[in-house]
Amino acid sequence: MKRFLLPLLVPALLLAMLTVAHAGVTAESFSLSPYVGGYSFLGREHLETGPVFGLRAGYNFTKNFGTEAVFDFARAHHSDGAPGHVDAYNYHLDALYHFMPAGPVVPYLAAGYGGQTRENDLEVTYGAFNYGGGIKYFVTDGLAVRGDVRGLYMHHDEASFHNVEYTVGVDFMFGGVKPKAAAAAQPESAPAEAPLEPIPAQEPTPGHFKYCITLHGEFDIDRALIRPEYVPEIERVSDFMKKYPSTTAVIEGHTDNVGNADYNLELSQRRAESVVNYLVEKLGIERSRLQAKGYGLTRPIADNSTDEGRQKNRRMEAIIDCAFDVREVQPPERLCIYLVVDFDSGKADVKPQYRDEIAKVGDYLKSYPTTTAVIEGHTDNVGSVENNMQLSLKRAQAIVSYLIQNFGIEPGRLSAKGYGSTRRIAYNNTPEGRAKNRRVDAVIDCVIKK
To answer: What does pLDDT average to over the chain?
Structure first.
């Protein structure tokens, strides 16, 4: 049997050793599998073990369940000295169940039913049931080395026959559903994908200001417990909310980029909820005024390639929605002002009736000369993505120019950013919703001493 197995087995094993293993079985994939091996006739058939050559064609409905159509040929000589040989043709349809389908080593069980036709002096056909299993070793996404052992049971004219087939081969895989890649970490300034909900938590409510505190509270790796040294940071939020009882807050949790994106999203949610629970249970803030929101690894503030950067990204933030006059508050770390500035569709011209809105930003920047501001432009979803990006940037630049020309704000303190239609605050399926999305936000970063 060595002379039949070595030509396929040796190259397959060398390929397995020289190649890094990749993903295993994928759903909705096809396979084509040539193989060679040996076929043993057990019991009273008086036939010697002979070589077998065959081909399998398969389809995987899911990563675990698949089916294969099989055809092979075996030739055997008589062990009792009788002249001639017997040609056996096997054909069957099998069901397969894969264990640990993600690979690279995938064991499986198989069973099926078909027939065996033998040709000697006469031709005879048996019904044949087969059962067994094997192992697939994936050397690339589309290539696996495979070993398989089957028992065959046949019954004909009151007689039963038991045979064994053992083979090695190669699986060539085609198509299939590719696994989703983990979400890549993105800078905070990158445009976010359009949210499923109409009003993202990070957007200011019309007519309100956003008082945003970056809590200097970091978490241990894979933990959501609040460190004692960061309790005073959480008390800052509590003190502010007690001073202004009409305020509400969104507590945001964040992670570094180590680990699965889905798990990090769940971990960040637990971190946010731990802060909310502390504010409620220890500091007496009503739960109805608080919301927990986890962002996982999508909003880093530092480089995830270093331990120090990853520690900074394992953080919490508080965004407080306040309905008050901005002049009553000392400069926070960040103030996000929603400008109620409506633009005509496809236009970036500033209408005269919105000068008072823009004056809120101008007056604030003049009152606190250490501050800088990013003016963000937004559009509805009418038109192409590229055109909307350009139009939103023009809208932001129009507000920047207005602040420079009418309030004397130094150009170096202002920058413009266009987000197109990626950050909506209302549904785009009504004229009113689209009008709300054609807006400008001002994000003011304040330099203060701590």
So the answer is: 78
